[in-house]
Amino acid sequence: MADCEDGGFKGKRRSEQQTLAQGGNQKGLPRKRFYRARAHSNPLSDSYFPVPNNPSDCDWKEHFPAFFKDNASEVESGKPANDEAKSEVRSSESGAVVPSFPAEKSVPKVRFADIGCGFGGLLVKLSVLYPDKLMVGMELRDKVSEYVKERILALRLKYSGQYENISCLRTNAMKYLPNYFEKGQLEKMFFLFPDPHFKEKNHRRRIISQALLAEYAYIMAIGGIIYTITDVEELGEWMKSNLDAHPLFEPLSEAELAKDPVVDLLTSATEEGQKVARNSGETYRAIYRRIASAV
Amino acid sequence: MEPATEDDGGFMGVHVGENMAPALVSVHPKGAHIVVSIGAGLRIFDFLKNTPVAVEDNTTPGKHGEAIRAVAFNEEGTLFASAGDDKLVKLWITETWSCVKTTRLPKKVTSVAFSKDSKWVLFADKFGAVHCLPTEVKDGKDEPFQLLAHCCSIITDLEVTSDGKYIVTSDRDFKIRVSTIMGDISRLDVDCALGSTFQLFELILCVVAFTEHERLDQVSVFPRDPLKGAPEIWKYCLGHSSFVTCTAFVGKRSSGQQFLVSGSGDSTVRLWDYYNGKMLDVFYTGEVEELRNGKVEDDSSRAVSGLSVSPDGSVVAVLIERFSGVLLLHYDDATKKLTHLESIFLSEQVSPTSLAFDVDSRLWLVAGAAESIELGDQLVTPEDAAAAEARAQMVARTAVAHVRLIRKHTSDLGGEDNARETLAAYKLCEEDSMPGGESLRLALQGSRADAGEVAVAAEAAEQAMRKLMSKRQYTIEQRENRKRFRNDKKLENKEG
């Protein structure tokens, strides 16, 4: 933490600390060094954050204020022109191989979830790629989820009208996903560079397991896609074999992978992915589709 | 190996340790036996012969070494399962009360249920997994395989729906989950004509046939790939704001329309349409007049600690923490609502720890608890294990329990007033007029039946349950201490 003459520096909120350090200019994006946290967090410990009792109790209006205004047409209209936009805006229908999900007609619902979103790199990239889809990142670490929230707020301010469709939740995805999402709600789920939990006795904490896949299959719509990537070979094999073993998922073919615009983002969009690329590491992907049960 | 118990001579001679396990009661579905489990021991009484029954166990280990936490009869009453803190599941044949199978599991068991066709026994453990074991006795060991899991949450109750299609599990993280038992006969190329009712566990590639064709039994082999289980979650029933302690089905079994009631730490009993995951009604036990007039000093909400439904599916009996009686609720199938029927108080200040309706709509209550001595993770030599087992059995033998009965009293109304008999009054049965009489009381209650002892033990068991279900609160200092002495090594001695 940068130290200051002010003895009360440490007691202030992070955004205020940053403002002080930057000399009073709060317009800029949050700086990561004020939000440093260990890479590992224990998902088995009971942390203290509010969890909705069921999906209908969850107040999404707080996360996506622009989408919950009175006019529903807000959702269908294209993005206002903005010369600061970095990527071209593409509609969600192009390039997607899976049966295209209809645009939101009534109450908009979250459709993409990034589990363990870290500093939010993927969300930011996906936001402009799919401007009509609501997406959330879920992060267990307190400081990191705060960073993502501040980042999104700053982006919304800087690029007016954009980034209204992403948000971050501080929660334990292993335990509480069914509290946030209804059955068949999500169209995409992302697990980028999850914690490998190397020791065998910790394998039960891995985010991909037979038991958890049942939960992910529950909240995903049929045809929805689950994207996983890691740079640890053993974990890559573990995730792939678990997905293979689960009867409600089938792998995407090479052709389908080639056509999906999201696949390349897995390696390039996040800080972790960029680090792996810098070190010329290998990555192992497992991308599967949620299918209907055979019964 | 002396476990560290708070032994100042106990209170009134009762050893109240850290971990008190409640006494459980279970009645044979056809009324033949009643079983009370207390600590590591089973006390069985035969109603037909009016005598206690001694069990026969030639499996190893031959007795439960720690408290029994879950008991269940199968639908016909031919089998009985007991399981608990010693991580053993014992399967008994009720005709002879001999144990035919004992299997060791990786984690402590919290709940047990049989599949509808009695071919499988399902059990849930403290880590959130539901395992499955065939009930058939074969040469050689069978390994239980995992069906499903709640992530890292203690499963508090496990039930199988009456149509055999779903498993309902409730857990400590306020959730009730309905999972599908999969089955698809077309996957098999077995050439035989099957009856119209059968259930299979398809994804574990194992046939469990409920049919009159004997030769199909040969196909009920162990799964080729134990990784597969019950991978499809059908619905969640979410709405409780605290840990869920128990679940039971209401409504007529014959009509097929079964709904679920659940009790929780938030002191409500909720009614669910589990097929659609919808909550139909909430009953706030805290608002019942008689409960409010209880002790004034504890403001905290009292958890629902047990549920049982009458055989006709219309009366729900509810046990509540620190309530020395039972609450009876009426389930109305037409309006799908729960209403207060009666509150029945026991004559002594003891809160029952377990309850069960029998086939004649009599409600049995038992109160009592015994210490469950944790052996912990240390390596245990066979001598130590035997000594611990012996001690547990002794504790079980000397522990006292109270058994009480509540019966429906049909009022003596004649003629036109017959309509009123449908909501007959339930009354506590006099001790002397309980079926089985003195014999039963001696067999099930233990040698001494001191109300004070039982009350102390039962209260300790309730506190243990609450401690288990609630999130632990540590001070900063305690947290630092725990981090410092964290044990990452499995089999080595702990320091400090």
From TrEMBL, chain A:
Identify the stretch(es) annotated as Disordered. Answer: 1-36, 74-93
From the UniProt record, give the pathway where this protein acts: tRNA modification; N(7)-methylguanine-tRNA biosynthesis
| Assigned GO CC terms | nucleus; tRNA methyltransferase complex
What GO molecular-function term can you cite, just one? tRNA (guanine(46)-N7)-methyltransferase activity
Q: Which reaction does it catalyse?
A: guanosine(46) in tRNA + S-adenosyl-L-methionine = N(7)-methylguanosine(46) in tRNA + S-adenosyl-L-homocysteine
- The main location is nucleus
Q: Which residues form the active site?
A: D195
For this protein, the record's Gene3D superfamilies field holds: Vaccinia Virus protein VP39 (3.40.50.150)
Q: Which residues bind S-adenosyl-L-methionine?
A: G116, E139, L140, N172, A173, L192, T270, E271, E272
Q: Which GO terms describe its biological process?
A: RNA (guanine-N7)-methylation; tRNA methylation
Q: Where is the composition biased (Basic and acidic residues)?
A: 81-91
Give the UniProt subcellular location, in the record's own words.
Answer: Nucleus
Record keywords, A-Z:
Methyltransferase, Nucleus, RNA-binding, S-adenosyl-L-methionine, Transferase, tRNA processing, tRNA-binding
Q: What is its EC number?
A: 2.1.1.33
Its function, per the record, reads: Catalyzes the formation of N(7)-methylguanine at position 46 (m7G46) in tRNA.
Q: Which family does it belong to?
A: Belongs to the class I-like SAM-binding methyltransferase superfamily. TrmB family.
Q: Which NCBIfam families match?
A: tRNA (guanosine(46)-N7)-methyltransferase TrmB (TIGR00091)
Protein name (record): tRNA (guanine-N(7)-)-methyltransferase
From TrEMBL, chain B:
Q: Where is this region: Disordered?
A: 473-496
Any idea which UniProt keywords this protein has? Answer: Nucleus, Repeat, tRNA processing, WD repeat
Listed Pfam families: WD40 (PF00400)
Primary location recorded for the protein, binned into one broad class: nucleus
User: In its keyword annotation, does this UniProt entry include Heme?
Assistant: no
Question: Quick one: a GO cellular component term?
Answer: cytosol
Q: Where does this polypeptide localize? A: Nucleus
For biological process, the GO terms are:
tRNA (guanine-N7)-methylation
Q: In which pathway does it act?
A: tRNA modification; N(7)-methylguanine-tRNA biosynthesis
* InterPro entries reported for this sequence: Trm82, WD40/YVTN_repeat-like_dom_sf, WD40_repeat_dom_sf, WD40_rpt
User: Is this entry keyworded tRNA processing?
Assistant: yes
Could you tell me which residues the WD repeats occupy? 61-102, 237-282
- Give the function comment from the record: Required for the formation of N(7)-methylguanine at position 46 (m7G46) in tRNA. In the complex, it is required to stabilize and induce conformational changes of the catalytic subunit.
Subunit structure and binding partners: Forms a heterodimer with the catalytic subunit.
HAMAP family for this protein: TRM82
Q: Which family does this protein fall into?
A: Belongs to the WD repeat TRM82 family.
The protein's name is: tRNA (guanine-N(7)-)-methyltransferase non-catalytic subunit
Taxonomic lineage per UniProt? Eukaryota, Viridiplantae, Streptophyta, Embryophyta, Marchantiophyta
